[in-house]
Amino acid sequence: MKQQTISDFEYSLRKKKTRREVFLDTMEELIPWQQWVDAILPSYPKGGRGRPPMSPEKMLRMYLLQTWFHLSDAATEDAIYDSYCMRKFTGIDFLTETVPDQTTLRRFRRLLRRGGLDKAFSEAILRVLKQSGYTLKQGTFTDASLSRTRSKSASPLSGKKAYLSVPSDN
Asked: Is 132 a domain residue?
């Protein structure tokens, strides 16, 4: 059994589960994880040179978060650092590992597309949800960021000129 961190303990004392956490807990139960990982393994990199590959299940979980919450690669990486329930869903333990970066996620997404697994997983999710009496309604989750502008008319923000921009998805 994994030892609980102070963050885990603190989070367990909260009074309410968020809608995102309820959604992720439901998906955790409904998805046949081992079956999906087995479908990925034949085309998944084996490693050998460079960094060892991240677990295909963790990459799949990151990919699903990206899909469900309409996140860019960079926003998915940030969301896992930022959101306890997303980190818990992926199973990433900050004490022993790092979050795969946006390039790693992009490569994984391309691997799924090449094999047609992205569409197969989407269809399977809808099928499993329907069989369980659920429907998937997608909302929006926008990642805003600050970017410098060269315009003289921008309002100063702490002595720096900046404006808000919403990056396009990939």
From this structure: yes
